[in-house]
Design goal:
two-stranded antiparallel ribbon, transport, alpha/beta, K_trans_C, 22 helices, 7-stranded mixed sheet, transmembrane
Length: 704
C-alpha cells in the first residue's frame, strides 16, 4: 500500500481506520462519502476475525476515545519536533565556530544561533517557492561533502575501522559496556531519527524512488561519515565534544561550515512546513482550533503558512535554545520524541493490518511484537534521558494533547446540540413557501456543521427578523477522512423543502490535505451546481417511480454535482465581467460633507485600478430552453435573479456553556478550556474565507 502524502503517519493511519470502521467520534459521516474513490482501499469481505475485531472497536466508545487520545498524543509529539528540530539543527551547525582559532564563547554562539532562528521564522510568510530550487542541490552537496570527509578520515586516521561494519562488534560492545552501552542507545538513536523523514514525501515521489535514494545515496554517505568520525576519534579522544567539525581538514573547513549551515536551515524549513501541514490536518479532522491558512504559492500545491503557529513555534524554539544552551540536552529531547512517534505509529500499523488489510490477528500481533521489541530497547534507553532534557517533548505533547482533545470534545458537544435541536421540517412546511415573512431578492447562505436537517440558527433568525432571502442554501463545509477530494466530487446538492420554498442544501467536502483556496469563485460554482441539480431532478422526476417518491422526503436525496463542466454542457452560461472594485458609488455632485469624506476614505483605501474583481452574470443556455418545463425555467430564473441581487453569508456566533447539572470536570472543560480556545482562535468566517462585507452573524447560546 502506498500511503497518502502526510507528514504525520499516525493521523494518516487513523483516518484510514476511520474509513474502514466507525471509529470517528464526530457523527457527520454520510453514505455518499463512502462512494469516493479514495475512501476504501481494496474489497471489504467483513468476515472472520477481522470483522469481529472491528465490531469490538466500534461497540465501545471508550475504545474509540482511547484511540483518539493516542493519535492526538502522537500528533502532539510530531508538532513538538517542529520546536526541537530548528533549535538542535541551527545550534549544531553554529557549533563549528567553536572549532576555529578564534573560538567563540557559548554566549556569542547562542546570540548568532538566535538571530538565525528569528530570521528563519520571520521569512516563513514569503514561502519557499522562490528558493526551493536550491534545496535539493544543497542537500546533495552536503551528502557528497560528508561522504568524502568520511573517506578522508578513514584513510588518514585508521583504515582498519572498516571492520566495524561487522555486527560482531556491537555484540562485543554490549558485552564490555553492559548497562552503559544500553543507555548509549539513546544517543545512537539520533543517527537514524532524521532518515525516516524521507518517507514523509510519499505523495511527491514514489516509494521505489525514495527507497533507492535512501539505499544508494543517503545510507552509504551516513555510514561512511560515521565510520570516518570513529576513525578520527580513535586517534583523537580529546575531540569527542565536537568530533564532526574537529575531523574536517582545515583547507575545506569554511566551505563545509557554510554548506552545513545551509543544510541545517533546509532541514529546519522542511520541519516547520511539515508542522504547518500537520496542524492543518488536525484542524481538518476537528482536533485543532480554527486557524488562518495562507497559501504562499499560486502555482505549487501544498505550500502553506499559518501566522499564529509560526510565531508560537519561534518563541518556543528560542526558549529551548536559550534555556538549554546545550545540543546534548536538546538531542535527548529530540531522540525521545522520535522514538515515541515510531512506537505509536507501529501500533496503528498493526491495527491497519487487521482492520484494513483484513489479515489475521496473529500476523498483526507477530508484527507488533517483533517491531516493538526493537523499538522498546531504544525507547527504554531514551526514557533514561528524561531528567536530562527528555522531559521537554513529554510536557509539550501533554499540553498540546489536552488542548486538542478539549477542542475536539467541545466540537462534539456543540455538534450534538445542533443535531438534537434541528428545526422540524413539519414546522417549515406549516409556514408555507413565504415562511411567514417577507422573502427579499438575493441568496442567503446559511452555514452550519450539520450535513442533514435545518440548523437552529435559521429558526432563530426568521423568528426575530421579518425578512429573509428568496433563495436559501444551507451550506455545510466538512472534511472527510481521505487525503483529497477531486473538484468533480466536492459538491453534494439536495433540496430541503418543496420547490416553491426555494431552499437547498450544499455539502462541500474536502480531504484533510485539500486546500480551500481564496479564489472568490465559490458563489459561482455553487449557483452552477444548484442549476445542474434542478435540471437533473426535473429529468429524473419524469419517471413515474421517482415522481411518486417526491413527497416522501425533501431532505434525504442528494446528488454529487460538478461545477467543472464545460460551458457547452452546462444549463447556465457564465458571462464574466471585470470592474473596478473601488469604483465609487457616490455621485461627484453630492454636496454632503459626510458622503464626500466617506468617498475620500474609500478612494484612499482602494485606489482606482489597484483592485479589480471578477463579476459573473448567468443566463440560460439558449439550447436548453426548448424542451424545458415552465416550472423548471421559473426556478432557474429565480436562482439567476437572486444571484444578481447579491449573496449574504449567515453564520452562527455561538457561546458554548455547560449545563448547571454538569460535573465539575465538564464545567472546567467547556466553560474554561473550550471557551478560552474559542475566544483566542480565528473566527469561523476567517477560517472559511467568508467575505466580511457580506457576513451576517446570528448569536446563539449552546448549553451542552
Amino acid at each position: 500500500m502506498i500511503m497518502e502524502k502526510v507528514q504525520c503517519g499516525t493521523f494518516a493511519l487513523y483516518s484510514l481506520l476511520c474509513r474502514h470502521a466507525k471509529l470517528s467520534l464526530l457523527p457527520n459521516q454520510q453514505a455518499a462519502d463512502e462512494e469516493l474513490p479514495a475512501y476504501k482501499f481494496g474489497p471489504s469481505t467483513g468476515t472472520g476475525a477481522s470483522s469481529r475485531f472491528r465490531r469490538f472497536l466500534e461497540k465501545h466508545k471508550s475504545h474509540r476515545t482511547a484511540l483518539l487520545v493516542l493519535v492526538l498524543f502522537g500528533a502532539a509529539i510530531v508538532i513538538g519536533d517542529g520546536v526541537l528540530t530548528p533549535a538542535i539543527s541551527v545550534m549544531s551547525s553554529m557549533s563549528g565556530l567553536q572549532a576555529t582559532e578564534k573560538k567563540l564563547t557559548d554566549g556569542e554562539l547562542l546570540v548568532i544561533a538566535s538571530v538565525v532562528l528569528v530570521g528563519l521564522f520571520a521569512l516563513q510568510h514569503c514561502g519557499t517557492h522562490r528558493v526551493a530550487f536550491m534545496f535539493a542541490p544543497i542537500v546533495i552537496i552536503w551528502l557528497i561533502s560528508i561522504l568524502f570527509i568520511g573517506l578522508y578520515n578513514i584513510i588518514h586516521w585508521n583504515p582498519k575501522i572498516i571492520h566495524a561494519i561487522s555486527p560482531l562488534y556491537i555484540i562485543k560492545f554490549f558485552r564490555v559496556t553492559g548497562q552503559d552501552g544500553w543507555i548509549s542507545l539513546g544517543g545512537v538513536l539520533l543517527s537514524v531519527t532524521g532518515t525516516e523523514a524521507m518517507f514523509a514525501n510519499l505523495g511527491h515521489f514514489t516509494s521505489l524512488s525514495i527507497r533507492l535514494a535512501f539505499a544508494v545515496v543517503v545510507y552509504p554517505c551516513l555510514v561512511v561519515q560515521y565510520m570516518g568520525q570513529a576513525a578520527f576519534l580513535s586517534k583523537n579522544l580529546g575531540s569527542i565534544p565536537n568530533s564532526f567539525y574537529g575531523s574536517i581538514p582545515d583547507t575545506v573547513f569554511w566551505p563545509v561550515f557554510v554548506i552545513a549551515t545551509l543544510a541545517a536551515i533546509v532541514g529546519s524549513q522542511a520541519v516547520i512546513t511539515a508542522t504547518f501541514s500537520i496542524i492543518k490536518q488536525c484542524h481538518a479532522l476537528g482536533c485543532f482550533p480554527r486557524i488562518k491558512v495562507v497559501h504562499t504559492s499560486k502555482h505549487i500545491y501544498g505550500q502553506i503558512y499559518i501566522p499564529e503557529i509560526n510565531w508560537i513555534l519561534m518563541i518556543l524554539t528560542l526558549a529551548i535554545a536559550i534555556g538549554f544552551r546545550d545540543t546534548t540536552l536538546i538531542g535527548n529531547a529530540y531522540g525521545l520524541a522520535c522514538i515515541i512517534v515510531m512506537f505509536v505509529t507501529t501500533f496503528f500499523m498493526a491495527l491497519v493490518i487487521v482492520v484494513v488489510w483484513e489479515k489475521s490477528i496473529f500476523l498483526a500481533a507477530l508484527f507488533l511484537g517483533t517491531v516493538w521489541i526493537i523499538e522498546g530497547v531504544y525507547l527504554s534507553a531514551a526514557l533514561m534521558k528524561v531528567p536530562q532534557g527528555g522531559w521537554v517533548p513529554l510536557v509539550l505533547a501533554f499540553i498540546l494533547m489536552i488542548a486538542m482533545y478539549v477542542w475536539h470534545y467541545g466540537t462534539r458537544r456543540k455538534y450534538s446540540f445542533d443535531l438534537h435541536n434541528k428545526v422540524s421540517l413539519k414546522w417549515l412546511l406549516g409556514l408555507g413557501p413565504s415562511l411567514g415573512i417577507v422573502r427579499v431578492p438575493g441568496i442567503g447562505l446559511v452555514y452550519s456543521e450539520l450535513a442533514t436537517g435545518v440548523p437552529a440558527i435559521f429558526s432563530h433568525f426568521v423568528t426575530n427578523l421579518p425578512a429573509f432571502h428568496k433563495v436559501v442554501v444551507f451550506v455545510c463545509v466538512k472534511s472527510v477522512p481521505v487525503p483529497h477530494v477531486s473538484p468533480e466530487e466536492r459538491y453534494l446538492i439536495g433540496r430541503v423543502c418543496p420547490k416553491p420554498y426555494r431552499m437547498y442544501r450544499c455539502v462541500v467536502r474536502y480531504g484533510y490535505n485539500d486546500i480551500q483556496r481564496e479564489d472568490g469563485d465559490f458563489e459561482n460554482q455553487l449557483v452552477q451546481s444548484i442549476a445542474e441539480f434542478i435540471q437533473m431532478e426535473a429529468s429524473d422526476l419524469q419517471q413515474s417511480s421517482l415522481a411518486s417518491s417526491e413527497s416522501q422526503s425533501y431532505d434525504g436525496r442528494m446528488a454529487v454535482l460538478s461545477s467543472q463542466k464545460s460551458l457547452s454542457n452546462s444549463i447556465l452560461t457564465a458571462v464574466s465581467e471585470e470592474s473596478d472594485f473601488a469604483e465609487p458609488t457616490i455621485q461627484s455632485s453630492s454636496k454632503s460633507m459626510t458622503l464626500q469624506s466617506l468617498r475620500s476614505v474609500y478612494e484612499d483605501e482602494y485606489p482606482q485600478g489597484q483592485v479589480r474583481r471578477r463579476r459573473v452574470r448567468f443566463r440560460l443556455t439558449p439550447s436548453s430552453g426548448g424542451g424545458m418545463e415552465s416550472s423548471v425555467r421559473e426556478e432557474l430564473m429565480d436562482l439567476i435573479r437572486a444571484k444578481e441581487a447579491g449573496v449574504a453569508y449567515i453564520m452562527g456566533h455561538s457561546y458554548v456553556k455547560s449545563r448547571k447539572s454538569s460535573s465539575w470536570l465538564k464545567k472546567m472543560t467547556i466553560d474554561v478550556g473550550y471557551s478560552f480556545l474559542r475566544k483566542n482562535c480565528r473566527g469561523p468566517a476567517v477560517a472559511l474565507n467568508v467575505p466580511h462585507i457580506s457576513l451576517i452573524e446570528v448569536g446563539m447560546i449552546y448549553y451542552v
